[in-house]
Every structure is written in structure tokens, then in C-alpha cells.
């Protein structure tokens, strides 16, 4: 398969390229605190920045390839300092 080409994902069952997050159909509204500030979707594999923002891992790592700052408050962020979110956020 060509890079960037959409295919049916084994994880979420939707068509999307490997570079983007999974697509889910939610039955209820998702709490605003559990939304990614980059993709504006519910968090997938959430990570925390040192400045305290929680974003999707894939979203943040792709963003950091372009700009090395938090997309929310523009504080410098180093990918190696990003940590997996707490168990509460990941559930």
C-alpha cells in the first residue's frame, strides 16, 4: 500500500491513512476535557506535555515534527519529555 493511502483499519474499522488517528463512532457526547486540541476528536492514546496539556500521541508527535512547541500555549515541548497520560484519562 502507498504511504498516505486510505485503507480499512483493523483497529477502528474505518478507512483512513496510517498517519491519522483512528475514527470512532461514539454513542454519547464525550467530555470536552477528553478532547484533543489538535484533531478536535476524543483522545486516542493520550499523552501529557510538561506544561500540562493532554493530546493524542499521534497528533502531538506529528505536530512536533513541524513546530517544537505546545499547540495550546506555545511553550517549548521536546518529544522525549512527553509522557503517557494517567490511567484515568486512557480509560
From TrEMBL:
The keyword Zinc-finger appears for this protein: yes
InterPro entries with a match to the protein in the record: RNF_E3_ubiq-protein_ligase (IPR051438), Znf_C3HC4_RING-type (IPR018957), Znf_RING (IPR001841), Znf_RING/FYVE/PHD (IPR013083), Znf_RING_CS (IPR017907)
A Pfam family that the UniProt record links to this protein: zf-C3HC4
Chain ranges of the RING-type domain: 36-74
Gene Ontology terms: biological process: protein polyubiquitination; ubiquitin-dependent protein catabolic process
SMART domains from the UniProt entry: RING (SM00184)
PROSITE patterns membership: ZF_RING_1, ZF_RING_2
Name of the protein: RING-type domain-containing protein
Source species of the chain: Capitella teleta
Organism lineage string: Eukaryota, Metazoa, Spiralia, Lophotrochozoa, Annelida
